[in-house]
Design a protein that fits this description.
Layout lengths: L2 E5 L8 E7 L15 E5 L8 H17 L4 E5 H7 L4 H16 L18 E5 L4 H25 L7 H12 L4 E6 L1 H6 L3 H7 L7 E8 L6 E5 L1 E5 L8 H4 L7 H15 L5 E11 L11 E3 L5 E3 L7 H12 L6 E6 L3 H7 L4 E5 L2 H14 L3 E3 L17 E2 L8 H13 L6 E5 L21 H10 L2
Parallel strand pairs: 1-5, 2-3, 2-4, 4-5, 8-10, 8-13, 9-10, 12-16, 13-17, 14-15
Antiparallel strand pairs: 6-7, 7-10, 11-12, 14-17
Helix pairs in contact: 1-3, 3-4, 4-9, 7-10, 9-14, 10-13, 12-14
């Protein structure tokens, strides 16, 4: 975590580089041996500067500073206030959250170089700042740090992040907070008749877990987040091509995002009642693997006809969504790296959102827009139900055509969500699993959609 300082005037210290935000084209950093270091960051035309550009700006600053091996920087907060009409606290929160995100790199398994890592160690904000600015900055630091913790978890190799280890990680991350964690094992899952989770897990020697996390920051019905926790996805017997399997230790990104969202809510002392459910499995090929053509009976009583073993995420989510009903939820949101089709539709800059409650879908999109966790809606028309009807089971986990896979996957989940008696939305975050060029984040997990979920939970009445 970056050390934060606040000052009225620019610090006069040759070890601290002053950041100058300037209208016009981008300029590289320049350093003069006789004077204080300075980095000039161009923002283009001031009248075209937007909140979206504000979100990227801190990451650019970090990138420029790290390229010059600068460890300490100072930012004129008064200059930032002139760029956009935002409340000071909100501006400080966005600034510090994205400075932290830009500063993250996954170096856990690397040998430290002799010259050390290129991390920014200290940031000084200077100018006219009230108490709201400091509160916003401190909040932004907590948010950025939690998003980075999620990125580290998602980047961890599958051999060191099995369902059992993911469950123990949830317990460790909850220590010191008011989040209570319960881990259901295979026998518990069997008693609950969760045939979807059991079926997908059969091919692995690693037993499945259902991780239940509770944070009661207020009374009343909880808001439930369900996160896909496939700790490694080979595709099962319908095994993936080699190039498609490379990042499949990240197929638990939805579960990791849900996990860190509830921890973040607790750290921020959010006055909300939140429950997180993470079905955690490995999807492996073996003599005991579930097969194409198998029929699995879920907790809901509905049967799933297995059309493809690589469509496993929706199968385990089906049981978890049904289990959410036990908590009498106010609303349910599931988060999953579910389909390549979402990526084909939207590229890698936005998650797909689907649901029947248009108001909630709109609120989720607005929450994402405000923090830079972008999302876009896809239709969930009743007509798509025809595409997931089973021949010998109630529903099939693979659509009847190769098209519209993100929609048919969501429609599959809706068959279980419609029993909830509350609003439900599905976030297919496959497009945002990893960072992309131009957003100034280190390679690997992007940390989505924690920011979106946190802002939504915070705003939801």
């Amino acid at each position: 975590m970056i050390k934060l300082n606040f000052a009225k005037e620019a610090p006069k210290n040759k070890d601290i580089a002053l950041i100058e935000i300037k209208e016009g084209g981008r300029k590289d950093a320049y350093i003069t041996p006789e004077a204080q270091k300075k980095i000039v960051v161009g923002i283009g035309k001031k009248k075209e500067f937007s909140r979206r550009k504000l979100i990227i700006l801190p990451r650019r600053i970090i990138s420029l500073a790290k390229a010059r091996r600068i460890k300490k920087i100072a930012i004129n907060f008064d200059e930032l206030k002139k760029l956009l009409k935002e409340k000071e606290g909100e501006l400080a929160e966005i600034l510090i959250t994205n400075l932290e995100m830009g500063n993250f790199e996954f170096v856990k398994y690397k040998t430290k170089p002799q010259e050390g890592w290129r991390f920014i160690e200290e940031v000084t904000l200077y100018g006219k700042m009230g108490a709201s600015t400091k509160r916003g900055a401190e909040k932004g630091q907590i948010i950025g740090d939690e998003i980075n913790a999620c990125r580290e978890l998602v980047n961890t190799p599958g051999g060191e992040m099995t369902p059992k280890l993911l469950a123990s990680t949830a317990e460790k991350r909850a220590e010191g907070t008011k989040v209570k964690v319960e881990v259901l094992g295979k026998s518990d899952i069997r008693k609950l008749k969760m045939g979807g989770i059991l079926g997908v897990a059969e091919g692995s020697k690693e037993e499945p877990k259902l991780i239940v996390m509770r944070y009661k920051g207020s009374a009343g019905q909880p808001m439930v987040l369900v996160g896909k926790g496939v700790t490694f996805d080979t595709g099962g017997l319908n095994i993936k091509p080699d190039l498609s399997m490379n990042e499949m230790h990240m197929d638990m990104s939805g579960g990791a995002a849900a996990l860190h969202t509830i921890i973040l809510a607790a750290k921020l002392k959010l006055k909300k009642h939140i429950v997180v459910l993470i079905p955690a499995v490995e999807n492996m090929p073996s003599g005991s693997s579930y097969r194409p053509g198998d029929i699995l009976r879920t907790m809901s009583g509905k049967t799933i006809e297995v059309g493809h073993t690589d469509a496993e995420g929706r199968v385990i989510l089906a049981d978890a969504i049904t289990y959410a009903k036990e908590f009498k939820p106010k609303l349910v949101i599931d988060v999953a790296t579910l389909t390549g089709s979402a990526m084909a539709a939207l590229g890698k800059r936005a998650s797909a959102i689907l649901g029947k409650d248009e108001k909630m879908v709109s609120q989720l999109i607005e929450a994402g827009e405000s923090v830079g966790d972008y999302a876009w809606p896809l239709p969930l028309w009743d007509e798509y139900e025809e595409d997931i009807k089973g021949t010998f089971g109630d529903v099939t986990n693979s659509g009847k055509t190769r098209y519209g896979g993100a929609i048919t996957a969501a429609m599959f989940l809706y068959q279980f969500a419609k029993e909830l008696d509350c609003p439900w939305a599905h976030i297919d975050m496959a497009p945002r699993m990893t960072s992309i060029h131009g957003e100034y984040l280190a390679k690997g997990a992007a940390g989505a959609p924690i920011g979106l979920l946190m802002r939504f939970l915070q705003n939801r009445k």
